[in-house]
Amino acid sequence: MNDISPDVAPRKKRKPSQNRRKSRELVLKAIYRCMINEGDLRQVLLDMKDDPDYLKADEPYFKQLLQGVNDNQAVLDTKITTFIDRALNELSPIEHAILRISSYELVYDMSIPYRVAINEGVELAKTFGGAEGHKYINGVLDKVAESVRPHEFRK
């Protein structure tokens, strides 16, 4: 039954950015889990639906981002490797996953301004990464953005 009684106000729609932020957090958890446990993406996707934040996320964006990062790992890692100061396997798995997610948005989703992609990566690092990891993430993503979006970056 989908009837809403007149006494109950309809739920306020969430801002798409908040939904996308939750989507990015869930993708981070999923990518991290796949990296650590070498899990099957389909199973990880099913398990993510049990996460309390799943209902708050933008589900289509979550699925698109997770699939995109998963399908393009090699390209993303090659791009990231160009701008890091250590071997890829020396990055913390959280930093590595964040760099993959934000690099994916920078390389493949031109609808997201480069500053937003960088900022979202930095926010993920502040929430889930090490104490100063967000500074490293910011520096690397800044270089990725400059290389893949030179016209937008110069403005």
Your description of this structure?
This protein has 155 residues and is mainly α. The protein has one domain (16-154): NusB-like (N-utilizing Substance Protein B Homolog, Chain A). It has eight helices and no strands. Helix 1 packs across helix 5 and helix 3 (59-71) crosses helix 5 (93-108). The longest helix is centred in the first third of the chain and has 22 residues, at 16-37. The chain is globular and about 40 Å long. Mean pLDDT is 87; it is low at 1-16.
Task: From the structure above, extract its key features.
disordered N terminus; mainly alpha; 155 residues; single chain; 8 helices; globular; 0% strand; N-utilizing Substance Protein B Homolog, Chain A
Query: What structural class do helix, strand and pairing data support?
Result: mainly alpha
Q: Let me know the CATH homologous superfamily.
A: NusB-like
Unreliable spans are 1-16
**CATH level-two architecture:** Orthogonal Bundle
Average pLDDT reading: 87
CATH domain topology: N-utilizing Substance Protein B Homolog, Chain A
State the domain count: 1
Distance between the termini: 52 Å
SSE order, one letter for each helix or strand: HHHHHHHH
Shape by Cα distribution: globular
Helical proportion?
55-70%
| Main β-sheet description | none
Rg (CA only): 17 Å
CATH class: Mainly Alpha
Give the strand content: under 5%
By DSSP, the count of extended strands is 0
Number of helices: 8
